[in-house]
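If I may wish for something, please walk me through the protein I am sending here so I can picture the backbone:
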Amino acid sequence: MKAIVVTDQAAGTAGVKLVERPEPQAAINDVVVQIHASGFTGDELTWPSTWTDRVGRDRTPSIPGHELAGVVTALGYGTTGLSIGQRVFGLTDWYRDGTLAEYVAVEARNLTPPLPGDVDFTVGAALVMPGLTAWQGLFEHGRLHAGQSVLVHGAAGVVGSMASQLAREAGAYVIGTGRAGGRQTALDFGAQEFVDLDNDALEDVGEVDLVFDVIGGDIGKRSAGVIRAGGTLVTVTGPTEARPSGGLTIDFVVVPDRAQLSELVQRLRVGRLRTNIGNAAALDDAVAAFNRTERIKGKTIIRVHPEDSGLPNAHEGAIHAPKESLDVEHDYADRFLSHA
């Protein structure tokens, strides 16, 4: 099968290659999925799990990517709850070969069946990590509820835009942050106010109940000062010394969750949630794409089977990514790099 592999952490994106690899085999409780669309997070090449297994042994050449939508093609011994031919989507194990390939072996429990027939694979793959990260940060760790206020950093970004939508729908008051160029995007995705981090004073927002942080660093530390007593700072950027007065700081890593992903896709189907897709690229274009340095707005999805929309019974009401993001001409090789 075709797959993107990385072999040398020091080489960074220059070490990315498109190669032929053996198709994976399903272990106990695994399934093999034919990938139709795969998401990629821009900083994966800095994660230890991309390069080593759980006990620290080198596992290169490794296949990055952990967000998928596709079709089950094989079942491992003992696997239940999934069937061959079923459309699925989900998040794969950080320490195993990932989804930038034609096939992947993944534990069945990490997948959500089925991906509804009116949601195409590109949209399904784009929902997985941003949706789960936002849901877990806001509701599982942040305990957000109606009537509270939340400060969402990076509100025009892939995860921030998802968090803004979910928080707004839950009845919270949403203040988004980011650079000036992202103001309208943040407002379009549900923020009711916007703070330009380059020109506005973060401290002027007053007090909020929850900060959802995807930026970290100095912004994360300063954010602790705008949280009211008993509030929470939730971050995905790693351990931090920032502590709100009388409150909590929670650093978390997103995990697969079938129930949460089912809730998210149902919201998407009825128009209460939308993904933030910037570009889609073919697998053959990904090597050149990895070596670009400019930041692309929105999520980049690798469409392993770009000729297939993923909708066997496509109809007028089907949920597709915007047409401009689904072009897979070679010019996308010049415009790919996505950060969740």
